[in-house]
Amino acid sequence: MQYKIFPPEKLKVTIELPASKSISNRVLILNALSLNTNPVKNLSDCEDTQVIIDAFNSDSNVFDVKGAGTAMRFLTAFLAGMDGEWIVQGSKRMHERPIYPLVDTLRVLGADIEYIENDGYPPLKIKGKRLFGGEVNVSGGISSQFISALMMIAPTMENGLIINIRDEIISKPYINLTAKLMEEYGIHLKWEGSRIKIKPQSYKPISFKVESDWSAASYWYEMVSLFPNSEVTLLGLQEGSYQGDANLINLFKDLGVSTEFVSDGVIIRKVKKTAKKFFHNFVSEPDLAQTFAATCCLLHVPFIFSGVQSLRIKETDRIEALKTELKKLGFVLRETDSEMLEWDGERCFVEENAAIDTYDDHRMAMSLSPAAIPYRSLIINDPHVVSKSYPNFWGDLQKAGFTVEEITN
Questions:
Q1: Is the pLDDT confidence value at 313 over 70?
Q2: CB-neighbour burial class of residue 103 (10 A; exposed 0-12, middle 13-18, buried 19+)
Q3: What is the DSSP letter of 280?
Q4: Which domain holds residue 342?
Q5: List of residues 6+ apart from 365 with CB closer than 8 A
Q6: How far apart are CA 326 and CA 47, in angstroms?
C-alpha cells in the first residue's frame, strides 16, 4: 500500500499527541512488579505497548512481541524472574537483532534462558525463577534498554543488583527515565558515575497517568520549521518532562521553531531564525536523528551528527535508510566514521515520482513525510508502519489539512 501526501495551504491546528511509548512500556512492567490492581491511565495505543499488554493478559506461555524491541528486552528480564516456562519470539527482523548482552548478564544473575534458533538472538525459551542478583558489568554502548530491563527487576533479586557501566552510555536519558519512574513506585536506588546500586525492596502500587510523547512531537516541530507563519498546539506535553527527547525544544530553536508552554501542552510557532549549520551529538536522543536529518536537508542546513552508532541496530539500519531515501529527494549524506553522519550541502538529481521506502520502521515514515511540504507532494510506501508508536499519525495530518490519498496497485 502507498499513500500520496499533499500539504495544506496553511498550518494551524491543535493535535492530541499519543501517550509516551517509553513511559507506558516501563510503567506496565513496574505496575506488574508492584502487584498493582489500578490500571495505568492514558497508556499508549501503539503496537509496542499493546504487545506488552497482550502478554500480561494472555493465558499462553508463548509471547509474540512482533517488531517491538523494548517489549522483547523488558519481557525477557521480567519473565526471567517469574516462576514458569516462557517462550518470547518476534518478527523476522526481531530475530536478527542481538539480545545476547542482556541474556548473558541475566544468566550471570541466575537466569535460565536458552536460544531456540541462533545463539545470541531471539526467539528465547525462559525458565523463570527468583534471581539471586549480585554485581555485573555491562556496556553502555549497545542499548540503554538492556540496562533499564535489569534495573526494573533488580529490587526483586535476593541480593539486589550493582550495575557497573563501561563505555559511553547511549541514550542516557532513558536510563534516567527508568530510575525516576522506579522512584515514583517507591524504589530507592543510587546512581553515581557509571555505577547503579539497587538493594532488595518492594515496589509500591500507585496511581499513574502517562504524559504525551515528545518523540511524536518532533514530527510536528519538523512540519512547523518548514511552513511559514505556522502554529501548532500539541496537547499533553509537560514542562520538566523525564523524557530525554524533550530536548528537541532546545534543538529546534536553531531550526526556526519557538516553544511556549501552556496549561495543557505547548504552542509551537515558525520564527525566522535558522542556523547556517547544525551540529549535535545524538547519543542521548537517537530517536530524533532521523527527524533532524530530514529537517536540516529540507531547510538546506548542512549538518554533522555524532553519536549515531546505535541507529544501525534499530528497526532497520537507519543510517543506510536515511542515505538511500534522502538521496531520492536530492541530498547526498555521508558517514565520516561509524559514529558520524553528515550532509555538507551536496545535491544530486531528485528522483522523479520518488516513493519513500519505510523499511518496517515507523520513524522513517514520519520523519520523511513532511518533505511533502517543500516538494508539494510525496509518496510513502507501507505507511501502516506508524502503528508502532503513533497509530493516528495520518489521521492527524488530515486534521491539519494535509490530503492523504491511498494509492492501490
A1: no
A2: buried
A3: E
A4: 2-18+212-407
A5: 356, 358, 380, 382, 383, 385, 386, 393
A6: 27
What is the pLDDT confidence band of residue 274, given thresholds at 50, 70 and 90? confident
Give the pLDDT score at 104. Answer: 96
Answer whether 103's CB lies under 8 Å from 114's CB: no
Residues 328 and 274 in one domain: yes
**∠260-265-267 over CA atoms, to 5°?**
35
Q: Which residues, at least 6 apart from 179, have a Cβ–Cβ distance to it below 8 Å?
A: 151, 189, 191, 196
Q: Residues 247, 268: one domain?
A: yes
Of 115-129, 138-152, 176-190, 389-403, minimum mean pLDDT range: 138-152
Q: Is residue 203 part of a domain?
A: no
Residue 205 lies in a domain: no
Please pick, among 287, 357, 361, 396, the residue that the annotation labels catalytic: 287
Q: Report how far residue 130's alpha carbon sits from residue 114's, in angstroms, rounded to the nearest whole number.
A: 17
Same domain, 8 and 28: no
Per-residue pLDDT at 319: 86
* Domain end residue (candidates: 198, 231, 252): 198
Known catalytic membership, residue 287: yes
Of how many residues is the chain composed?
409
pLDDT digits (tens, 9 = 90+) for 334-348: 988 767 999 999 999
pTM of whole model > 0.85?
Answer: yes
Considering only residues 396 and 141, tell me which one the structure prediction assigns the higher pLDDT. Answer: 396
Sheet of 112-115, strand order:
62-64, 84-89, 124-128, 112-115
Which grid coordinates are listed for 294?
530530514
Largest Cα span, the chain = 62
Beta-carbon contacts of residue 261 (< 8 Å; ≥ 6 apart)? 239
